[in-house]
């Protein structure tokens, strides 16, 4: 029988540059989650400081992160809840965001490229971690699913400014539509559960919240609104993921290198395919040249019923052999380049 996990998504009104106050609020919600028997509690991205990279006090506020990490580890040991620090206070995995949000992050942050997205072992099974804009890239999800992850955690600080002014003119609710659509789609594409935790804010403000636990077939098991500061708890029955996989066989296709294999970015395999295409082309041309040599050597003389004279044959063969020799050289070069190409 598949296990059932209680999962809490915590949606904060993150106070700018007030890590102590934000930590106290987060700890209160985590204690509440533990009291409700939750196995996992997820907080938003930048939940201790908010995101103000141009503020002169921002760097100093971020410098105390190790202090708060230790505080979370102590809290995890006390409450036996994972954050994803395990219930014994061990950090089970870490991740550096790869896909930075261009308009505001790339000037100030370094991407986690070229490290792989790796699932890590937890008491809830294999879990993957993505952050904010990572969720827009299906390839990141595929790496985690290939590593066995069935639960993908996505802390984020997603705001209305994620849509341009032009986009908001088309639909003022475009950011919410984006999140709800993509999160649900990812559950179907990967037969996984998504735990998405975002910051909330005052009504009509920039923060859009929508923290949720989402699964295939059902959609959100729980979902907070845009303004709420609070916590939502979902019971995640892992059987629904088994049923979805039996239905769609996404993981099975990945494991056996089925149709999905062709969409992976496998440069070496692509180069080998090109090599064989090139070799096939050269083999075809060499065959044509060889047939032309035979045809010329066996061609009857227009002035006689006999075959061409020995001297004429040699001249024709020499002319044709020059073409043949050129193609042989090209073939050897192609083979050499094709063999070296995957390593270059």
UniProtKB/TrEMBL annotation:
Transmembrane segments: 326-343
SUPFAM superfamilies in UniProt: Carbon-nitrogen hydrolase
Highest rank taxon of the organism: Eukaryota
Classification via Pfam families: CN_hydrolase
Keyword Hydrolase belongs to the record: yes
Keyword field: Hydrolase, Membrane, Transmembrane, Transmembrane helix
Entry annotated with the keyword Secreted: no
Domain CN hydrolase: 5-238
GO MF: hydrolase activity, acting on carbon-nitrogen (but not peptide) bonds, in linear amides
PANTHER family, per database record: CARBON-NITROGEN FAMILY, PUTATIVE (AFU_ORTHOLOGUE AFUA_5G02350)-RELATED, NITRILASE C965.09-RELATED
Record protein name field: Related to carbon-nitrogen family hydrolase
Originating organism: Rhynchosporium graminicola
Lineage, opening ranks: Eukaryota, Fungi, Dikarya, Ascomycota, Pezizomycotina
